[in-house]
Amino acid sequence: MPPTEPVTATRVASIDATLVRLPSAHPRPRRADPAGRPRREPHALVRVTDDRGISGWGEVTMADPDRWRLLVDHYAPALLAHTWHRPTEAELAWAGLPWCAPVAAGLDSACWDLWSKQRGAPLAHSLGGERTAVTAGVTVHRQDTLDALVQEVNRQVGSGFRRIRLEIAPGHDIEAVRAVQESYPFLVLQVDARGRYTEDPADLDRLRALDSRGLLAIEQPFAAPDLAAHARLHRELRTPVALNASVDSLAALDDAIRLEAGGALNLRVANLGGLTPARRAHDRAADAGWDLWCGSDSESGIGRAAIVALASLPGITLPSEMPGAGGHTVRDVADPPVRAHDGITPIPLTRPGLGHDIDFRALGNAAVDSVSLDRQGRRTVPAEPAD
Hints:
By secondary structure, this protein is an alpha/beta fold. It is built from twelve helices and 18 strands. It has two domains: about 10-120 and about 355-380, 2-Layer Sandwich (Enolase-like, domain 1); about 125-345, Enolase-like C-terminal domain (TIM Barrel), CATH 3.20.20.
């Protein structure tokens, strides 16, 4: 459990938000432009600073452009007006706002980073983590041919990844799994269906066929709201059904546990709204006997550093998601970069907070908009801090 010593109240003095576009380090083949250049993914990096000048960092994935407006016009001002003793109380600042989990996740994670630095503790220890390193897994997306799929799996296995997660869909499932397993019969393999199946007989037959392949899990076979369908399938199969998009709140997780709609959970910080609800979800799922791993929403290094800290928790039983080998070499804003080496990602325990510096040169080169807010509401372009 995290330390419980008393702490003084924190009032955030300023919040800097920087909208950046960073090249996706490992895009799906169809996401690169005709010239082969990586697609630039939007992110918002947020820095919360207290009255002593100590800063914490978080990240908001910006798939929806409205998230930037929610961040700078609503969520950030609400946090500036809020006093909290522990980062678990920061979420009360936006309790009355329209809910946007990725925006809440960025600010919540930044508050955890700030609090850890105030205490001189690594973020992993503040969360209650016990590990010194995380076993890494990687997702291999659908490829144009089975030969291309096996070649991509070969690249990831050669880089040391211990678990491969294959993206599947009806018509690209049984054959894909068989091709990979014939080349790598002892590979730890799971599949991610992304809600693409139904309970039609043909789809169920395919899922039953996958059940005979010795997979680690079949993730999110049905649409997110249909927990009953997941429960029926979970009762029928030997392979655990894993949930992802179905669990976007603690209430949804409670429903899934009650219905026995799965046996594993892809724990995603951005999907749940931050490290605070993600840690609570970890505790509830682990208590229910579920396997867990930490997933990713294409975060840059700042977001991934928070995910690595979360993956240090004792209930994380499966390899957690990291960027794969190959693809485009991208200069990230986290220094050193947050990556796996020979299938292992170290947890930084010698420095407080996230344990990574910010590369302000890379941040400035990627920035497309910047806003700085203080308690008086003034907005300026944020300057590089002394720390």
